[in-house]
Amino acid sequence: MNLSQHTALVTGASSGLGEAFARRLAAMGADIIITARRKDRLETLAADLRTHHGVQVTVLPLDLSAPGAARELHAQTEGAGRRVDVLINNAGFGVQDRFVDIPWEKTAEQLQLNVVALTELTWLFARDMKARGRGYILNVSSIGAFLPSPFYATYSAGKAYVRDFTEAIAHELEGTGVQLTALCPGLTQTEFHQVAGHKLDAPVRAVMMSAEKCADIGLQGLFHGERTVIPGMSNKLPMFLLRFVPRRAMATIANLAAGKRGA
């Protein structure tokens, strides 16, 4: 898809999937707006995108876990006359631990970023897109959306919200020219597990999907009108088989798959 004359906004763009989305969208010809907390990383990425793809890149350092940050991001883009044609709601993080042992402030920060900010950004930008009669929004969920995940309880529940919310709004906006897609990655080569405090064995790390491949699959699904995208057969097949698993067994399966056994 040729995205020249289009502008894409990517949140959480300083590393991992966000960086991969920005690179892929720039390669497709889109001008890029990137936001995250780490300004130095954003500036490095911006310089690289300008050099290799000749697109305009705007850096907006923001902490989207702060209340009011979503409106600030909208004010600095659409509110300032900068049309956003593609929104990638990628910013988010998880913490691997018992729910009762995680400081409430950290859980509140996670919910604000993963759920509240994503929802508000979708509301703000979808309204503008609907008024113009076109636009694309990709919300990053997770295969954790499909089952309750001990030691990732609020993260998994939040991603279930993202998936259901995205599919519902996609239905509401059908026929308006605005497309919404939920991307549900499995294990992916990003900083997620490091930030979450989750140590992965070498064999597991060896089979993780690259961020670049995951971003490519997500964008293909978005531009082809898919409402939910699960990248890779190694993720699709287990999610399909879950429909045959008793509900009470799902938490045990999720716990074992994450490598945390109640220690």
Give the gist of this structure.
By secondary structure, the protein is α/β, with parallel strands linked by helices. It is 48% helix and 14% strand. Helix 1 (16-27) links the parallel strand 1 and strand 2 (31-36).
Report the uncertain regions. none
Shape: globular
Mean pLDDT: 92
Order of helices and strands: EHEHEHEHEHEEHHEHEHH
Helix content: 40-55%
Task: State the main characteristics.
alpha/beta, two-stranded parallel sheet, 263 residues, seven-stranded parallel β-sheet
What does this protein look like?
It is built from 10 helices and 9 strands. The longest helix has 29 residues, at 104-132. 48% of the residues lie in helices and 14% in strands. Helix 1 crosses helix 8 (211-223). The protein is globular and about 50 Å long. The strands form 2 sheets. It has a 7-stranded parallel beta sheet with strand order 3-2-1-4-5-6-9, sandwiched between helices. The protein has 263 residues and is an alpha/beta fold. The mean pLDDT is 92. It has helices at residues 16-27, 39-53, 69-76, 104-132, 153-172, 192-196, 202-206, 211-223, 233-241, 247-257, and strands at 7-11, 31-36, 57-61, 86-89, 135-140, 178-183, 188-189, 209-210, 228-229.
Task: Draw up the topology in text.
Blueprint: E1 7-11, H1 16-27, E2 31-36, H2 39-53, E3 57-61, H3 69-76, E4 86-89, H4 104-132, E5 135-140, H5 153-172, E6 178-183, E7 188-189, H6 192-196, H7 202-206, E8 209-210, H8 211-223, E9 228-229, H9 233-241, H10 247-257
Parallel strand pairs: 1-2, 1-4, 2-3, 4-5, 5-6, 6-9, 7-8
Helix pairs in contact: 1-2, 1-8, 3-4, 4-5
